[in-house]
């Protein structure tokens, strides 16, 4: 006697239900990390990959000039870190933001550079996110291009990580939307003609084809906030720095692409 | 300048100021927020008793600065390219939902689904958080515009 668990007539329905549930179980979870690079057209990808075609390399070269410019006391960044930053460890660059014991808060790469700029070169510090500091940051982060993002979220950094996560999931502005709405639940979907990426931070500072300018992470966050008609936090504020920590940690495992090309 | 001329100038200036103030108070009146109540996941009565115009509603759903419904939904408007894929398509919505349900969906979908990505186009501005100055205390659409959009959506059978 043949044993039939299910009536044959309905097999097609069972398969349909199974397929739908498999599909649903994947919904809402960013199963694998995808850099914004994978949402680019092949032409834009080629532009980013080619060092001569990548417009962001101008900022990197300007940053290289700053790196070798003597400060008030005659020292340059290269005095400690070697010609062209040869003494800098790419693995350490990929770990930023790191906890700073003295200031008792996370230190972004920009803050670390600015700290040296003032402390070891005797210069007047830059304003956070100003063009020159973003160029320096682009140069330094470019040294770690291809390195895997590996941000620590435990220990003293944990409360800041949690704060960043809270901001990421909080609704803001007249549009009353959170970052996670677009970049976690609906990434890959179309917002009119634009495809929503997963919103990773591994390419910053990045060159934007839309504006034709280098954009820092805090600059991009400011744009995001204004697009949902919310009052942005200050650039370099503890809120944005915590959000930066969360964003980098969220992309742990991706490769650094600075200077990335994006829309 | 004679005294008579000065007097005339003062009168004219005062008149201008009065006119200008009247103009400002008029636009404020247009943006007034009328409280609404939802009942059984619907707002049965039109906001402030206004009557919507479906043709104007069709313009609003396309306009980037207004409804921008097309940003997330696809609609039976084939001459517009790149309809969004975030929300469900709205073809035939009037045969699936009542007018009151559609109104609450447009006004404040978060009252139906607290997790939704959809903005509330006539959400109580006091329930919002960290709003940019120029939009503070305002709704995304005016009550009339909401009614226009509802009237348009009711034509999609």
Kindly describe this structure.
The complex is a heterodimer of chains A (263) and B (157). Chain A is mainly alpha-helical and 263 residues long. Chain A has 2 domains: 33-44 and 152-262, Orthogonal Bundle (Cytochrome Bc1 Complex, Chain D, domain 2); 57-142, Cytochrome Bc1 Complex, Chain D, domain 2. Chain A is 41% helix and 7% strand. Chain A contains 11 helices and 7 strands. In chain A, strand 5 (206-208) and strand 6 form a beta hairpin. In chain A, helix 8 packs across helix 11 (238-250). Chain B has 157 residues and is mostly helical. Chain B has helices at 3-30, 54-62, 93-96, 99-108, 143-153. The A-B interface holds A 170-177, 181-182, 185-186, 189-193, 196, 226, 229-231 and B 70-72, 81-86, 110, 117, 119-120, 123, 125, 128-133, 135, 138, 140.
Kindly name the structural category of chain B.
Answer: mainly alpha
- The N- and C-terminal alpha carbons of chain B lie at a distance of 70 Å
The largest beta-sheet of chain A arranges its strands as: 6-5-7
DSSP strand (E) fraction of chain A? 5-15%
Shape of chain A: globular
| Count of separate DSSP helical elements of chain B | 5
CATH T-level fold name of the largest domain in chain B: Cytochrome Bc1 Complex, Chain D, domain 2
Describe the global form of chain B: elongated
Structural class by helix and strand composition of chain A? mainly alpha
Helix share, percent of chain A: 40-55%
Average residue pLDDT of chain B: 85
Instruction: State the domain count of chain A.
Output: 2
Keywords:
heterodimer, A: 263 residues, mainly alpha, Cytochrome Bc1 Complex, Chain D, domain 2, 2 domains, 3-stranded mixed beta sheet, two-stranded antiparallel ribbon, 11 helices, 41% helix, 7% strand, globular, B: 157 residues, 5 helices
């Amino acid at each position: 006697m043949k044993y039939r668990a299910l009536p044959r007539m309905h097999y097609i329905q069972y398969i349909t239900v199974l397929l739908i549930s498999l599909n649903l179980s994947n919904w809402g979870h960013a199963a694998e990390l995808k850099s914004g690079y994978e949402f680019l057209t092949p032409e834009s990808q080629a532009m980013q990959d080619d060092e001569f075609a990548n417009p962001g390399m101008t900022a990197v070269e300007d940053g290289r000039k700053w790196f070798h410019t003597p400060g008030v006391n005659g020292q340059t960044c290269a005095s400690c870190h070697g010609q062209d930053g040869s003494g800098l460890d790419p693995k350490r660059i990929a770990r930023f933001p790191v906890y700073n014991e003295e200031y008792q808060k996370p230190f972004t790469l920009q803050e670390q550079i600015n700290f040296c700029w003032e402390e070891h070169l005797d210069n007047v510090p830059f304003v956070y996110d100003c063009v020159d500091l973003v160029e320096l940051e682009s140069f330094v982060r470019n040294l770690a291009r291809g390195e895997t993002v590996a941000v620590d979220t435990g220990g003293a950094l944990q409360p800041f990580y949690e704060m960043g996560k809270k901001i990421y999931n909080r609704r803001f502005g007249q549009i009353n939307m959170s970052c996670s709405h677009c970049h976690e639940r609906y990434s890959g979907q179309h917002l009119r003609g634009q495809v929503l990426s997963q919103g990773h931070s591994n390419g910053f500072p990045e060159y934007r084809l839309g504006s034709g300018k280098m954009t820092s992470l805090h600059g991009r966050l400011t744009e995001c906030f204004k697009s949902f008609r919310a009052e942005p936090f200050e650039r370099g504020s503890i809120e944005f720095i915590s959000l930066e920590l969360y964003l980098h940690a969220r992309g742990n495992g991706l490769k650094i692409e600075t200077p990335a090309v994006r829309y | 300048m004679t005294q008579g001329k000065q007097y005339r100038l003062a009168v004219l200036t005062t008149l201008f100021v009065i006119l200008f103030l009247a103009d400002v108070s008029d636009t404020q009146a247009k943006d007034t927020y009328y409280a609404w109540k939802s009942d059984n996941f619907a707002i049965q009565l039109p906001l402030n008793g206004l009557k919507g115009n479906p043709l104007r509603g069709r313009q609003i759903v396309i306009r980037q600065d207004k409804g921008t419904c097309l940003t997330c939904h696809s609609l039976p408007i084939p001459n517009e390219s790149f309809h969004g894929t975030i929300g469900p398509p709205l073809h035939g919505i009037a045969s699936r939902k009542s007018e009151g349900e559609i109104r609450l969906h447009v006004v404040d979908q978060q009252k139906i689904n607290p997790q939704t990505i959809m903005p509330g186009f006539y959400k109580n501005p006091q329930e919002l958080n960290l709003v940019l100055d120029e939009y503070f205390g305002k709704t995304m659409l005016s009550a009339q515009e909401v009614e226009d959009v509802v009237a348009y959506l009711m034509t999609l059978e």
